[in-house]
Design brief:
GO terms for molecular function: carbohydrate derivative binding; glucose-6-phosphate isomerase activity; monosaccharide binding. Its main location: cytoplasm. It is found in: Cytoplasm. It comes from Marinospirillum celere. The chain has 2 domains: 239 residues, Rossmann fold, CATH 3.40.50.10490; 182 residues, Glucose-6-phosphate isomerase like protein, domain 1 (Rossmann fold, 3-Layer(aba) Sandwich). The strands form 2 sheets. Strands 1-2-11-10-8-9 form a 6-stranded mixed beta sheet, sandwiched between helices. A 5-stranded parallel beta sheet has the order 4-3-5-6-7, with helices on both faces. The longest helix has 24 residues. It is 44% helix and 10% strand. By secondary structure, it is α/β, with parallel strands linked by helices. It starts with 9 loop residues before the first helix and ends in a 23-residue tail after the last helix. The structure holds 6-O-phosphono-beta-D-fructofuranose.
Length: 541
C-alpha cells in the first residue's frame, strides 16, 4: 500500500474549513479570558503555552483526528521498536536507544553501553592527565573536527551548559572547527600548542571532505613538530564514526576509535559517541544527565495522548500553520544567551529532516512540508529582524523559549541581584514580544498612525523550562527531534534521509580538479601557526 498523502486524510477538509473561518488572535483572546490558562501542555518540568496559536477547541479536535488517522501512536511504537522507519536507506532510526536503560530498548543493543563505557574511559584519561601528547605533556586543549550533525549538537550543548562544568573538566578547553575553508582551524592553530592539543575527528561516514580536509591539515601541522606519525596518531587523535575500516585506513589505532551505528542519523548523533566533546568539556556525569533528560521526554512521547503530548502538539500546530494557514516561515527565539547555537542546531534538525517534496515511497507531494526555519537569541533578534515580524509582509510562526529560573546557582556572586533583575527584564521582553505579535496595537491601544500600526495575528508558542540544566536541555532537544518525526509522519515523508545534499558534493568533486589544475604552480607554504619549539617524541603512557 502506498503512503497516504496529508490531503487524502478525512480530517484535512474539516481543517481547511476551519482555517477558512480566519479567526483572529485578538478575538480568540477576548472571547475566552481563560484561554492562556487552558491552552498549555506539559512534559516533566517543561510547559508549552500555545494560547497564542490561531487554534480553537474545534481545531484541536480536528488535529487530534488527523494524528489518529495518520496512526501516530503506532508510528511512534515503530520508531522505538527499531523498525526500519528510514525506508529509502532501509534501516532503523534508533537514537532513542542511545539514551534508554537496557530494559527500555530493543534487544541486542548492548554495544550501546559498551561504547559509552569506552567513551567514559577515554574522557577520564584525558581529564585526569593520564593521556599525554607526543612530548609527554598533558592535554590542555581539544578540537572537535566535524560538520553538520557531527558539529552542531556538541557545539550547542557545550555552549548551553558551560556553567555546569564539573571540576575534573575545568582544565580542558574544547574548541570546534567545521568550515571547509580552514579558516576556523587557521585561527585555532595560530595559538594552540601542538604538544598539548588533542583532535577529535567526528564523522559518521568518515568520508566528509569538510572534516577530512581539516583533519589532514592538522596532521600535517602536527607532523612539522613531530615526525613520528604513529606516535601522533596515538597521542593526538580520537575518531568517532560508524566506519571502523575508514578510521583505521586514516591511521587511527583501534584504541583511539569510538564507534556508533548506521542506525543513528547524523543529526541525531550527539547522544552517541559524537557527544565526546560534550563529556570532555563538561564532564561525563553531565553527559549522562543529558541522556537521562532526553529519555524522560522519550517516555512522555511514547505514552501521552495526542493533545497531552508536548512534541506531538508542536508537530500538529506546525502542520496547522504550514498547510492550513499558509505560514511558511518559522522563527526560533530562545530568550537565553546560553542557547546561542540552538537555532542553528534546529535549522539542520528540522530542514535537513523534513525539507522533502516526495513521500517516503517516492510520490510527489502536492502540499508544503518544512517551513524555512531560522532564529537568534530573542532579545538580540529584537534589534535585528523583529521589525519584519511586527510590520513586514511575511506571516511567521515563532517559538519563544525561556527558563523561568535563572542564576539560582550564582547566589555567591557579588552582583547576583543585578543579574536576577536582568533575568526579569529578559522575561518581560519575551512576554511582551509574543503579546504584541499576537494582538498588535490592541495589546496597548489602537492608532491611526500607519507607521505605528502593528497588525498582530502572528502566531507563536512559548516553551517554558523551569530552569536550563543538562536534564532539561536533553528533554528540550528530544522534544524537537520528536516533533520532527511526528510531522514527517503527518506529511508522509521520511525524515531520516538527506538525498538533497548529495548532488552538490558530487559537482564540487568534479570542479575541484579544474581549480587545482589552474593553480598547480603554487609553491608550498609554511605550516600555519608553526610552533617555535618543536620537541622530541614521548610515548603515551
Ligand atoms: O551533508 C549532510 C550530512 O550528511 C549531514 O547529514 C551530516 O550530519 C553531515 O553531513 C556530516 O556527516 P558525517 O558525520 O558523515 O561527516
Amino acid at each position: 500500500m502506498s503512503q497516504e498523502l496529508l490531503t487524502q486524510r478525512s480530517a484535512f477538509a474539516n481543517l481547511q474549513a476551519l482555517a477558512n473561518q480566519k479567526k483572529k488572535l485578538v478575538d480568540l483572546f477576548s472571547e475566552d479570558s481563560r484561554r492562556a490558562q487552558k491552552m498549555t501542555v506539559s512534559a516533566g518540568s517543561m510547559t508549552l503555552d500555545f494560547s497564542k496559536q490561531r487554534v480553537t477547541g474545534e481545531v484541536l479536535e480536528a488535529l487530534e483526528k488527523l494524528a489518529l488517522e495518520a496512526k501516530l501512536p503506532s508510528r511512534i511504537k515503530a520508531l522505538f521498536a527499531g523498525e526500519k522507519v528510514n525506508i529509502s536507506e532501509d534501516r532503523a532510526a534508533l537514537h532513542t536507544a542511545l539514551r534508554a536503560p537496557a530494559d527500555k530498548r530493543p534487544e541486542g543493543l548492548d554495544a550501546v553501553d559498551e561504547q559509552l563505557e569506552r567513551m567514559a574511559v577515554l574522557v577520564e584519561k584525558v581529564q585526569s592527565g593520564v593521556w599525554r601528547g607526543f612530548s609527554g605533556k598533558r592535554i590542555t586543549d581539544v578540537v572537535n573536527l566535524g560538520v553538520g550533525g557531527s558539529d552542531l549538537g556538541p557545539l550547542m550543548v557545550t555552549q548551553a551548559l558551560r556553567e555546569f562544568t564539573q571540576p575534573e573538566a575545568r582544565s580542558l578547553k574544547v574548541h570546534f572547527a567545521s568550515t571547509i575553508d580552514g579558516s576556523q582551524l587557521f585561527d585555532l592553530l595560530d595559538h594552540l600548542n601542538p604538544e598539548t592539543t588533542l583532535f577529535c575527528i567526528a564523522s559518521k561516514s568518515f568520508t566528509t571532505i569538510d572534516t577530512l580536509s581539516n583533519a589532514d591539515t592538522v596532521r600535517s601541522w602536527l607532523g612539522s613538530y613531530c615526525p613520528d606519525s604513529e606516535l601522533l596518531h596515538r597521542c593526538h587523535f580520537i575518531g568517532m564514526s560508524a566506519s571502523r575500516e575508514k578510521m583505521t585506513a586514516w591511521g587511527l589505532p583501534e584504541a583511539n576509535q569510538l564507534y556508533f551505528w548506521d542506525w543513528v542519523g547524523g543529526r541525531f548523533s550527539l547522544w552517541a559517541t559524537i557527544g565526546l566533546p560534550i563529556a570532555l568539556s563538561l564532564g561525563m556525569s553531565v553527559f549522562r544527565e543529558l541522556l537521562a533528560g532526553a529519555h524522560e521526554l522519550d517516555e512522555h512521547f511514547r505514552s501521552a495522548a495526542p493533545l497531552e503530548n508536548l512534541p506531538m502538539m508542536m508537530a500538529l500546530l506546525g502542520v496547522w500553520n504550514v498547510n492550513f494557514l499558509d505560514i511558511r516561515a518559522h522563527a526560533i527565539l530562545p530568550y537565553d544567551g546560553r542557547l546561542k547555537y540552538f537555532p542553528s542546531y534546529l535549522e539542520q534538525l528540522e530542514m535537513e529532516s523534513n525539507g522533502k517534496s516526495v513521500t517516503s515511497d517516492g510520490q510527489p507531494l502536492d502540499y508544503a512540508t518544512c517551513p524555512v526555519l531560522w532564529g537568534e537569541i530573542g532579545a538580540n533578534a529584537q534589534h535585528a529582524f523583529y521589525q519584519l515580524l511586527h510590520q513586514g509582509t511575511q506571516a511567521v510562526a515563532s517559538d519563544f523559549i525561556i527558563a523561568a529560573s535563572r542564576y539560582d546557582n550564582a547566589c555567591e556572586f557579588a552582583h547576583y541581584e543585578q543579574l536576577v533583575a536582568q533575568h526579569e527584564l529578559n522575561i518581560a521582553n519575551c512576554l511582551a514580544q509574543s503579546r504584541v505579535l499576537a494582538l498588535g496595537n490592541a495589546a496597548v491601544e489602537p492608532t491611526d498612525n500607519p507607521f505605528r500600526h502593528y497588525p498582530g495575528n502572528q502566531p507563536s508558542s512559548t516553551l517554558i523550562l523551569e530552569r536550563l540544566d543538562a536534564r532539561s536541555l536533553g528533554a528540550l532537544i528530544a522534544t524537537y527531534e520528536h516533533k520532527v518525526y511526528a510531522q514527517a509522519c503527518l506529511w508522509g515523508i521520511n525524515p531520516f534521509d538527506q538525498w538533497g545534499v548529495e548532488l552538490g558534493k558530487q559537482v564540487a568533486q568534479q570542479l575541484q580538479p579544474l581549480l587545482n589544475g589552474s593553480s598547480s604552480e603554487r609553491t608550498p607554504t609554511k605550516p600555519v601557526g608553526a610552533h617555535p619549539n618543536p620537541v622530541g617524541a614521548h610515548p603515551n603512557p
